[in-house]
Amino acid sequence: MEMASGSSILRTLAIIILSYYLFKFLMRIFAPIIMQKAVNKMQEKMQEQFRKQQEQQEQQQYTTSQFQTKEKEKVGDYIDYEEIN
Predict the structure, then answer these.
(1) Cα(13)–Cα(10) distance, rounded to whole angstroms?
(2) d(CA 72, CA 36)
(3) pTM to 2 decimals?
(4) How far, in Å, CA of 15 to CA of 9, rounded?
(5) What are the DSSP calls for 19-68, one per residue?
(6) Going along the chain, which residue ranges are E strands?
(7) Within the chain, how many helices (H) and strands (E) appear?
(8) Which tens digits make up the pLDDT trace of 3-60?
(9) Which residues are CB-contacts of 20 (< 8 A; sequence separation ≥ 6)?
């Protein structure tokens, strides 16, 4: 088994450290952009869900009002009774 030389260990450590700092630097640049895209995507999904919910409520109100008008038509005449003492 061969032993690693001191220079190769230092070179490996230098590569690891430089890679870490490069990654950290790049994340400072790209993380806000990535986060902004994620927030925009979630906002669009929430707006779409809100629109669908509004459409369902309007549809429900429309069908409810149709049902109520049909019920009123089926009832018949209204007779007003007076109390006799």
Answers:
(1) 5
(2) 54
(3) 0.50
(4) 10
(5) HHHHHHHHHHHHHHHHHHHHHHHHHHHHHHHHHHHHHHHHHHHHHHHHHH
(6) none
(7) 1, 0
(8) 778 889 999 999 999 999 999 999 999 999 999 999 999 999 999 999 999 999 888 8
(9) none
